[in-house]
Write a structure and sequence with these properties.
Length: 268
């Protein structure tokens, strides 16, 4: 991308030289590509040749191998740090969300279903089936990546729940940390963002945030649970979608006078 001016300059120089040495041959008129089309093409991840169930599980194995990356380590570090900061306010934050108003309770009631893993899997399979039935490879690819991301999120969430053994706010069991609802919905939102861009993923992130808030309102999770769950979902979504056209990089760097800052860069 940064070499484009140099390439154009060299190309123009070669064209001028050819015109001077072969004046009888007029230069061919080359229509430059539409920048808008280039940007749109670069935004979309490459569609794989195979989008069947065999490819699904084959890619999932590769995704698991790609989990220990520096980018995922940074995301986990940020999520863990924010969860640690939120931990002292866990109980008081849930208390503020408690409500005896029927309207508020009704508003948050669908969250436990929207963020439930079976419902998310069904949505992903529906997207995949639509793409296959109507011969839309990009839609089938999106559905396959959604399914992979949700499976990968569960692979990370379930062992953590049994290792940490944190009691839920309502005392129902000891599987509070991290939030599985938050993880799978943020995995969905991240995959949609990677496929379609930020503008078309705003609704998905809003739904994921709503699901996370509903878990706090229902007293099923603490704030730190849903924050780290969102980080796990983001890791799953970014690991599954294999393209670098819209890549966020996290790089620690030292600052003058001591201390460390986190440099966040975006490459298109």
């Amino acid at each position: 991308m940064f070499f484009t001016p140099l390439v154009l300059t060299l190309g123009l120089g070669l064209a001028v030289t050819a015109a001077q040495t072969q004046e009888q041959a007029p230069p061919a008129q080359v229509q430059p590509p539409d920048p808008g089309e280039q940007k749109a093409d670069a935004k979309e991840p490459p569609t794989p040749k195979q989008t069947g169930l065999r490819a699904l599980f084959g890619d999932l194995g590769e995704d698991i191998k790609q989990l220990p990356s520096m980018q995922n380590l940074y995301i986990a570090g940020i999520g863990g740090g924010l969860a640690a900061l939120a931990h002292p306010a866990d109980v008081s934050f849930n208390a503020h969300l408690e409500s005896h108003l029927d309207g508020v309770n009704a508003f948050f009631a669908p969250g436990k279903y929207i963020g439930n893993t079976p419902e998310q899997i069904a949505f992903s399979l529906g997207t995949y089936a639509y793409g296959r039935f109507f011969d839309a490879p990009k839609v089938a690819h999106l559905g396959m990546d959604l399914l992979q991301a949700q499976i990968l999120a569960e692979i990370m969430v379930e062992p953590l729940k049994y290792i940490v053994r944190r009691e839920r706010p309502d005392g129902s069991n000891n599987l509070s940390f991290p939030s599985g609802h938050s993880a799978v919905t943020f995995a969905t939102a991240t995959v949609i963002e990677r496929h379609l861009g930020w503008r078309k993923s705003v609704l998905a992130y809003a739904i994921a945030s709503y699901v996370a808030m509903s878990r706090l309102h229902d007293d099923k999770h603490y704030l730190s649970d849903v924050i780290f769950g969102a980080a796990v979902g983001s890791i799953a979504g970014r690991t599954v979608v294999h393209h670098a056209s819209d890549y966020w990089a996290f790089t620690p760097m030292s600052v003058p006078g001591g201390g460390v800052a986190l440099l966040v860069t975006r490459t298109r």
